[in-house]
Amino acid sequence: MTHRKTIGVGLISVGWMGRLHSRAYLAAAQHYPEIPVRAALVVAADPDEKSREYATDVLGYRESVSDYRAVLAHPDVDVVSICSPNFLHEEMALAAIAAGKPFWIEKPMGRGVLESRHIAEAASAAQVVSSVGFNYRNAPAVEHARRLVRDGALGTITNVRVAFMADYSADPLGALTWRFKRDLAGSGVLGDLLSHGADLAQYVVGRIVSVTAMTETFIPQRPLPASGAVSHFSRGTEDAPMGSVENEDYAALLARFAGGGVAVLESSRVSVGPRAQYVLEVYGTKGSLRWDFQRMNELEIADDLSGFRTVLMGPGMGDFARFQPGAGTGMGFDDLKTVEASLFLRSVLENRQYSASATDAWAAAEIVHAAQTSAETGAWVAVGETMTQHGPSQSGLTDDVVS
């Protein structure tokens, strides 16, 4: 019988993502039984009373509190999930590091590159394991794409296209929540969606070293929110007072990789039509591939001149076999977070970085910062060298493009 170490979980913020983290911790033991660890839901923090009740009555936390500091001080908490709004991330992450608690945080990790750098450097100095919610890299199709690129199956990589297009803010009556305020969210779609796209490009192909960018805000005014409106989907009314949107709805980047390839990256939160059309395309001298999150369990591959063929994900591709017995029965978004939870727990258990780290999040923030600078100046901007001080993470994100 396998002896399992119990790892006590503390949660900060019981919203949609906090609830998903909680389920993923528990599911990880079922899908990864060889990892000798079992998560125990200890305490959840949220200022909202109904959310605290949900944490104990539905999710199964032993207790709930209103102050996140009580989570970090709890003697039975070994790891903490930080699922709060962006403007609280730095404070909470630094407090977790000071308490010696490995943390799993959602992206963007900071409101900008400075906050992200502070968190990454503090975690590195304290040797605290971290995990950041770049879950799309855990899709079996993405893992398979990475293997094809790294094995040279596509030849020399010439160009990459990334398009993260969504409609969650396409309604002009969508309320002016914290996500549209620069002092609370930082950037707009750059940090919220294109950071995912930049991470995918780097994870599959290699390090981005320079960018030129443009950004636009297409819905400049939104109704002020009613009390308690905090989500992407909160809606105002036509007669509500209006306020200004302070960050970008749309961004487009040209980029260069360290190994010589080039890329186009585009993202929108106000597109009418795409719901969550998150696309990665990689083109090489011997072949190409295309993946769309809306068809998450498929990968289009072209390795000759007869065009793309669709390959259904199955056992042997990423962690697919952990969830389904054969191709044709697909994985879902929640499963990607379970993979993420397993990587985090394994990282904590072995004190080695397997999950996307705070340094990886800093690397994505450097691309966002370079894009913002370019959009203001119109110039090509070099991406900050985050890895020169800390080295590549075990996740392999920072490997140069394969040629």
From TrEMBL:
Record keywords: NAD included? Answer: yes
Annotated GFO/IDH/MocA-like oxidoreductase domain ranges read: 143-290
InterPro entries attached to this UniProt entry = Gfo/Idh/MocA-like_OxRdtase_N, Gfo/Idh/MocA_oxidrdct_glycsds, GFO_IDH_MocA-like_dom, NAD(P)-bd_dom_sf
Which parts of the sequence belong to the Gfo/Idh/MocA-like oxidoreductase N-terminal domain?
8-134
Q: Return one GO MF term.
A: oxidoreductase activity
Alphabetically ordered keywords of this record: NAD, Oxidoreductase
User: What is the protein's given name?
Assistant: Gfo/Idh/MocA family oxidoreductase
What organism is the protein native to?
Answer: Subtercola vilae
Q: What is the lineage of its organism?
A: Bacteria, Bacillati, Actinomycetota, Actinomycetes, Micrococcales
